[in-house]
Amino acid sequence: MAAQDFLTITRLGWAVAIILIGLVVRFFQRLHYHRTLVKGLPGPPHSYLWGSLISMNETLRTQPKRAAPQTFATILKEKYDLPDCFYLDLWPFGPMTMMIMDADVMGQVTVKQSFPKAVEVGTFMRTVSGPGDLVASEGATWKKWRATFNPGFAANHLISLVPLMVDQCLVFCDVLTKRAGNNDLFRMESDTTRLTVDIIGKIVLDADLNSQRAPNPLVDALMQQIRLVGTGAIFNPIEAIDWPYRWARQAYNKWIMDRYIGARLEERWATREARGKSRTVIDLAMDTYVKENKASDSGAANNKRLDSEFKQAAISNMKTFIFAGHDTTSSTICYCYYYLSKDPARLAKIRAEHDTVFGPDPDAVADQLRHDGHLLNKLEYTLAVIREVLRLQPPASTLRTGPPGSFATDPTTGQRLPTEHFMMWCVDVGLHRNPKYWDSPHVFRPERFLKDDSKSDTSANFTSNPAWVGFSKGPRNCIGQELAVLETKVILAMTLRKFEFQAAFDELVKLRGDGSGYPSDFEGIQTQFGEEAYQIQMGAAKPREGMPCRIRLIR
Ligand code: HEM
């Protein structure tokens, strides 16, 4: 080898070595920085090298493999006797996290100050929606869209939507009747998902998606997108390997969804004048577009085609509404069936309420609700059941981030809890199962939400009770909460006296390989909080395996 070549190789070797040393030094600098962030703060046993990862791992080993990450907060707290707010150092595999299960502290970061959403929310929502969506955006963009869509979720408008919910629920009853006739073993969550997506499709796009009866390209792409979404908050090793496949599939699904909704937007835009005023979500977005363009006198308001920037933001928001508006509600309906089926006395009680309000014939409910949606206001016990289900199995929570120099304060000790640099996880399921606020917190007892309940916990009123946060609180609370409750009431009123639901986790193995896309685990720990139907993360937190069940027609 010539001396010249030797020198070149030696220089190259030195250069590589210097880069590697630089990377190692940088790694240890960052390690030190993250490890000292949580120094002296409450949390599970912590190691300088591994942060909280060893404690996390020990805790996860005691839980079902795919249990939803939000459920670990309570388990960690109990295992290590932690306070209601504690810190997790998951670097470099996850964000530095502050777990909040105290009602007062949660109120400080969502109501009193309303801290910005964590970056993980944007990462998560980008897969499903896109730039400018209501869930992840902040500041003026969020304000504009929230004000735009609020009228679509006003109570008086929602009542006018009851007939369309009834129509979709009749299709659902047909589907269930066939299932009962065939004695099918099936995943209830697949059916409730198609029901709720058809309802929200009508409310958002004024479109008959009809996914309960036939495949629909928008719905199919959305369902697959939800299955491909990363958890964002917790490291999943598979996501580090299969990203090329995920990326390509996600890009394709996005293209299908954007094309579908884009065409709907153009169609609505072209027929806007003829149609007149409407509070459908898609039309509300266009009202804002017209208002903005008239104000700026750009002339775009009279153009035949929509401006591309508006179109992109509108598509993002339509997708957000379709996603946020079906997934959570579908999970809630499944859990209502599940808890009631395990509690014959309470099932009898809710059925008795439906007898009182609608009379003995369950098939008459549809017509009665079409004529008078206000009958739903009489379903006090049904509402208590929904609140109790959302207490035990809340499908969503809020993730915030602390602005520079920000703190929260522990209400009992007065200790200042740093929030800057942390993802603040307001863990509803942790708060909802916290014995400080709830009597027998793991027990299904809807009566706790009735005004005259002798054992009423902090307060029976679910909006003013700071320990009930199923729809989050403060300015970033759920815009669709009234709709979700109304819809669930309609569905329970129309189905509970017609069908007998029976969970069938013991038959799970027969559903193996059915192509439904639910992850399966037949080995290891199979229950959490004593329930077979523990939550897994698939978009929202939802019942494991899609709630396998059988159904029987009663009348
Ligand atoms: C049982 C059903 C539902 C539950 C438990 C639920 C829960 C929540 C929660 C916890 C949040 C706060 C999320 C965060 O801070 O990141 C939220 C926000 C939101 N929800 Fe829901 N939701 C439900 C149904 C719906 C429905 C039916 C819609 C649509 C019509 C909807 C649309 C939204 C939107 C757009 C936001 C973002 C609001 C904002 O930031 O201004 N949700 N929901």
UniProtKB/TrEMBL annotation:
One of its GO terms (molecular function) is iron ion binding. The keyword Membrane applies. It comes from the Eukaryota. Keywords: Heme, Iron, Membrane, Metal-binding, Monooxygenase, Oxidoreductase, Transmembrane, Transmembrane helix. Gene3D superfamilies: Cytochrome P450. The chain crosses the membrane at residues 12-29. Its cofactor is heme. Pathway: Secondary metabolite biosynthesis. The keyword Oxidoreductase applies. Heme binds at C478. Belongs to the cytochrome P450 family. PANTHER family: CYTOCHROME P450, P450, PUTATIVE (EUROFUNG)-RELATED. This is Uncharacterized protein. It comes from Baudoinia panamericana (strain UAMH 10762) (Angels' share fungus).
